[in-house]
Amino acid sequence: MSAAAVLAESLERAAAQSRPVYQLRRVDKVYTARNVHALDSVDLTLEHGSFSAVIGSSGCGKSTLLKIMSGLEPPTKGSVMLQGRPVTGPRRDIGMMFQQATLLPWKTALQNIVLPIAIRDGKAAAKAKEREALELLELVGLKGFEHVFPGELSGGMAQRASICRMLITEPAVLLLDEPFSALDELTREFMNMELQRICASRDATAFLVTHSIQEAVILSDVVYVMKPRPGRIVEAVTIDLPRPRTLDMMTTPEFASIVRRIRGRLDVEAFL
Ligand SMILES: Nc1ncnc2c1ncn2[C@@H]1O[C@H](COP(=O)(O)OP(=O)(O)O)[C@@H](O)[C@H]1O
Ligand SMILES: [Mg+2]
Q: Which residues contact 202 (CB under 8 A, 6 or more apart)?
């Protein structure tokens, strides 16, 4: 490759890295039925390829924020832009994952994974995607489990299958609402590392809702701290631990000091 081509490529990469994928401006949400001011003037910009987490006590508006970002819930005020276009409803370039894997028990892992394609584009299109689904199963360490039914999968395996189901539509952004909260601690830590690997290999932009400070810190470039009543972002903490992150980093003084700083910003009573 010529020097000019190398330069052009590195400039392109830098531009891609600083390209905002999501832009939220002064997003407000009031649930009028119960007169709850769930979000107050939230500003948020997510860069291409970045991993961000939002942390805050129960009821501070995390899920509301995610629903607004995904187009499932309209904001009362403010704007939500994704890849330069306003989000006005569910979109193909958004992938979501929740606390429960929500796989259909009467379909195999493979059938569950291609289901979004079957619903969107029909059976033939889903069939054509099976090869890719098998590659995804391999990516998440579930090779050989394609014909297994969800009832025979452990919690961690089911969440891995739901990662595949999210990735099959090739979303530009991954919105994750406490995806590993129902798992035991060891499985959860393992899944955190898996998620990091998957995001890096696909250059994905990810936004994770969690109430584990450790999980937020080990995965993220930026951790947003939210406070309730009304729900708002009070701080954006940049995590400059090197990448790739490892579980060993969780025992370092740097890690402990970041965790302490974030804990200090949260309403600790709300966690008790
Ligand atoms: N559909 C809804 N209708 C009315 N109030 C809601 C609705 N969804 C959430 N809320 C309220 O909005 C606030 C934020 O909720 P939520 O976004 O679920 O918080 P979190 O995910 O941080 O626990 C809470 O007070 C909750 O009771
Ligand atoms: Mg929630």
A: 167
In a mutational test of the pocket of ligand 1, which residue from 27, 29, 31, 211 has the highest number of ligand atoms less than 8 Å from its CB?
Answer: 31
Query: Residue 6 pLDDT > 90, yes or no?
Result: no
Q: How many CB atoms lie within 10 A of CB 43?
A: 13
CB-based contacts of 97, cutoff 8 Å, min separation 6:
159, 162, 163, 166, 174, 175, 176, 177, 179
Q: Which residues line ligand 1 (CB under 6 A)?
A: 31, 33-34, 36, 38, 56, 58-64, 231
pTM of the model: 0.89
Render pLDDT for 50-100 as a digit per residue (tens, 0 to 9): 999 999 988 999 999 999 999 999 999 999 999 999 999 988 889 999 888
Q: How many angstroms separate the CA atoms of 198 and 221, rounded?
A: 16
**Atom 4 of ligand 1, residue of closest alpha carbon:** 31
Sign of CA dihedral 194, 114, 82, 72: negative
Question: Which CATH fold topology does 19-91+221-272 show?
Answer: Rossmann fold (3.40.50)
Write the residue with the smallest CA distance to atom 8 of ligand 1.
Answer: 64
Distance from the alpha carbon of residue 135 to the mean position of ligand 2, in angstroms: 31
For position 268, what pLDDT does the model report?
Answer: 61
